[in-house]
Specification:
This protein is mainly α. The chain is about 80% helix and about 0% strand. Helix 3 packs parallel to helix 5 and helix 5 runs antiparallel to helix 6.
Amino acid sequence: MFLTGFAALAVMPLLPVAARDLDGVGLYPLVAGAFVAASLLGGVLGGSWADRRGARAPLTAGVVLTVATLLISATSTTIWQLALGRFTDGIAAGLVAVSVNAAVGQSFPDRVRARVLALMSACWIVPSLVGPPLAGLVAQWASWRAVFFGLAALTVLPALAAVLLLRGRAPRAGAVS
């Protein structure tokens, strides 16, 4: 969740620079809004999937898609490619966010579930405070593309660990995800 929050929030201030570099300043609103709109779609798809099959499958798909879409954004040569990268990253973020919440619902007893969900929500606080300035420093030191490459690299290991921890978890009957 932390890296999903970071990917969502840290890159937003860099998008105008990326749009300028890709000669697409007029399409900046499309690029910025693509992630948010698509995350809603990813959340709906991921929630339904997690309810039917457990959280592992949509989490795995979301993680793999996250890495791929960050690489698409990092290597964009047109504003349309960047918009596609942000749109598909939004779908991935929706899959991951809902899957993590479903995993909590499927894995933790009622008495601690609320605390765990609160902790998961807190994973958005640090990225919102630290993400944009840190991404700005990386972009100033290297480029906006380096931020996307860095996020893709940082996503692989923790995501793999989360997927492995959920191995064999199926939805509990009556579980609320």
